[in-house]
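Morning. Coffee machine broken again, so started the prediction first thing and wrote up yesterday's gels while waiting. Chain of 319 residues, entered below exactly as on the submission form.
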Amino acid sequence: MTVSLHYLGPQGSFTHQAASAAAELIPDGGECIAEPNVTAIFNAVANGDGWGVVAWESNIEGYVVPNLDALIDAEDVAGFARVSVDVAFDALVRPGHGDLTVVRAHPHGLAQCSKFIVEHGLTAEPSSSNAAACRDIASDEVALGPSICAGLYGLNVLCKDVQDFDGAVTDFLVLAPREQAREQLAQAESNGVVEFESIVAFIPLSTGPGVLADLLDVIRDAGLNMTSFISRPIKGHAGTYSFIATLDAAPWQPQFKTVLSTVAAHGDWVKTLAVYPRRERPNPPVSAWMLPKGGVRLDSADVSGARFEPDDDRELLWA
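Came back before lunch.
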């Protein structure tokens, strides 16, 4: 039985591309259905009307925070697959347009094309999606979106590839009711998948020195490789946070199961948000040109004998 995939529309959005790719990769994936917003996607999944596809993380702008928060709060939704889409933006306009004063795109799209926006003196206005910006474009507006949107919505290309950085990729999660997610993961295992990644949210229910360090010690002592660790505020409660970790393991594997049991037994809150087959990741060294401006880096191979320079006082604020 095929299952529909609900995505952030309209047709032509990057999420539509991810949903189409997921429908080809997942044995039960079927028709792709556009939704007006992310809430509608989560509702469709929670109501058993199909699966959802949501943007999760960009290698330019980082996590898509509203979607992350929605998954933390969702009652019966979990991710079971992760799909990557190459992201490039064209600047699109209506045929016979007037003076161009406004540019529209999803907030992440606007952030990824900031140089173009400044160079053309445009006022940035967010849209629910990049494709929606293209569909609803006015005569005085520029829409930033996938190249496919030009043909879909009868637009002209003002400029191609206007993103600030080449090589942009956005990862999307495929969501299902939690029991169906378990079934899909079991099917992946039966098909020979042995390595998984998991995204887990933790909320320590006690405060004080070392609480977060103790949590990280549990993960380290289990020998798990953590590839990402971020925090999100618990809304309306100053100074309280949830912590979201991405780990190279599946929660049913013994070491990871011990971690989850230990954290829960300590009285803290824990929830597995997503599990999916482990992605192949390049592991290039971080070269000096990749580092932010300022900061301190000791070049000496023998760090213990390296000397700090006067400017290091300024960067470290320790004198």
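The chain has eleven helices and 15 strands. Going to sketch it on the whiteboard this afternoon.
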